[in-house]
From TrEMBL:
Species assigned in the record: Cardamine amara subsp. amara
Keywords, ordered alphabetically: Metal-binding, Zinc, Zinc-finger
GO MF assignments: zinc ion binding
Lineage: Eukaryota, Viridiplantae, Streptophyta, Embryophyta, Tracheophyta
Protein name: Protein FAR1-RELATED SEQUENCE 6
InterPro entries: MULE_transposase_dom, Znf_PMZ, Znf_SWIM
Domain SWIM-type as annotated: residue spans: 319-351
Length: 445
């Protein structure tokens, strides 16, 4: 069988199973109406041009809108290409729950990533996530995203994905010691540490230093970020979501939305049950993170300074902890809103529960509240109103490229290097033979 005959056969089989791409656009008004009817509080928007051709789509399930109230106010936005005859771009707005898992907030489909489409998407998103000083938006360095955020979200703090920044630096300036210094500068918690590394970059490579300054240190350096971005320095959760939806990106548009709904139904149910099964005050991910820090805290030397301040010495570093204001001079406690090694050592010294030092966003009770809603399926037994049935939505003008359609994108040099990198060997304790600690910090002997 010839290639193109096999291609047409596969295309015909898909249309029999999922419907045609054209029918997907025609069914959009009815589908969105049924989704709103089945899911109270759901926001949908459909934008067509003067001739009735599809232009933009936005959907945010009521379960996501209600659940975001119990999340850290950090939203990661990104876009990924759709495949098929009519192309388009799938836009996503995501958060991260208190157990460090992806929380789907809103989705959009637009013709292409440009100033108008991103501004329209953020305008709809603002109805779900209001603009305020406590909000942080993380994205790549797309110029249209920057312009849209400035117009629609003037109060929110904007950060750029450090992973995309690293890729650009690797291509323009190469790897080696300079690359490691940039990563170190981006992840510094203390201003003096950042300035020391940044000055070293300027000495070694003034051009790279200028590039980083033009990128605006407030957007990529953790220590300079004007708002709260917690542990979210990249758009990795958006890339993970793109991978989850990778197989659906060639489906008819209604089928893409239904696959998103099925995913959310499954995720919300599983995570709700998981949150209810948690016996600890903190979420499972946070408990594991703090357990790893406890072993280091046991090696610290603690000395009370006064009623509010406690001195903690870990190795060659000395830090001062204030348990009342939940601050530490290492600034990890301040930024992540989770107790650092020094804070845990001070809490043990003062007989203070480390749970009380964590932000409430990390409590398992709030995690259960975040997933209290459900993404319900459509009820096809109830007919669609006539005014919805007569709405016209036809496919956009196709933009087919010559040659074989591309399914996967070309990987960047940073991704290729990461795949080839040998996995770091985990240290094993010589006493209990378990990983993650050594004989000096072993608690089993």
């Amino acid at each position: 069988m010839e290639y193109w005959k096999a291609h047409r056969t596969l295309k015909f089989a898909r249309e029999l199973e999922m419907g045609s791409l054209e029918r997907g656009y025609e069914d959009l008004p009815a589908y969105l109406h049924m989704i709103r009817r089945a899911n109270r509080g759901t926001l949908t928007r459909l934008n067509v041009d003067d001739s009735g051709r599809f232009k933009y789509l936005f959907i945010a399930f009521g379960a996501s809108i209600g659940g975001f109230n119990f999340m850290r106010k950090v939203v990661v936005v990104d876009g990924t290409f759709l495949h098929g005859k009519y192309k388009g771009t799938l836009l996503t707005a995501l958060a991260q729950d208190g157990n460090f898992r992806i929380f789907p907030l809103a989705f959009g489909v637009v013709d292409t990533e440009n100033d108008d489409s991103w501004q329209w998407f953020f305008t709809q998103l603002k109805l779900v996530v209001p603009d305020n000083n406590g909000l942080a938006l993380i994205s790549d360095r797309h110029k249209s995203i920057r312009k849209a955020i400035r117009k629609v979200y003037p109060l929110a703090a904007r950060g750029i994905c450090t992973y995309h920044l690293y890729k650009n630096i690797l291509v323009r300036f190469g790897g080696g010691n300079l690359f490691r210094l940039v990563k170190k500068a981006a992840n510094c918690y203390r201003m003096d540490e950042f300035q020391s590394v940044f000055d070293e970059i300027e000495t070694l490579h003034p051009v790279l230093h200028g590039y980083l300054e033009r990128a605006d240190v407030r957007m990529w350096a953790r220590v300079h970020f004007p708002g709260d971005r917690y542990n979210l320095t990249t758009t990795n959760i958006a890339e993970s979501m793109n991978k989850v939806l990778a197989k659906t990106r060639s489906f008819p548009i209604v089928r893409i939305l239904e696959e998103i709904r099925l995913m959310m139904t499954r995720w919300f149910n599983d995570r709700r049950e998981d949150a209810l099964a948690m016996k600890t005050t903190l979420t499972r991910g946070v408990e594991k993170l703090l357990e790893d820090r406890v072993s280091g805290a046991k090696q610290a030397t603690v000395q009370t300074i006064d009623s509010r301040h406690i001195q903690v010495i870990c190795g060659s570093s000395l830090h001062v902890v204030n348990l009342d204001s939940k601050r530490c001079t290492c600034r990890r406690f301040d930024i992540d809103k989770l107790p650092c090694v020094h804070a845990i050592a001070a809490a043990e010294h003062k007989n203070v529960s480390r749970v009380s030092l964590c932000h409430t966003y990390y409590f398992s009770s709030l995690l259960g509240n975040a997933y209290a809603g459900s993404a319900m399926p459509n009820d096809f037994a109830v007919p669609v109103p006539d005014d919805v049935g007569i709405q016209v939505c036809t496919p956009p003008i196709p933009r087919n490229q010559p040659g074989r359609p591309k399914i996967s994108r070309m990987k960047s040099c940073l991704e290729v290097a990461s795949e080839k990198k040998r996995r770091r060997k985990q240290h094993t304790c010589s006493l209990c033979k378990k990983e993650g600690h050594n004989a000096k910090t072993c608690i089993n002997h």
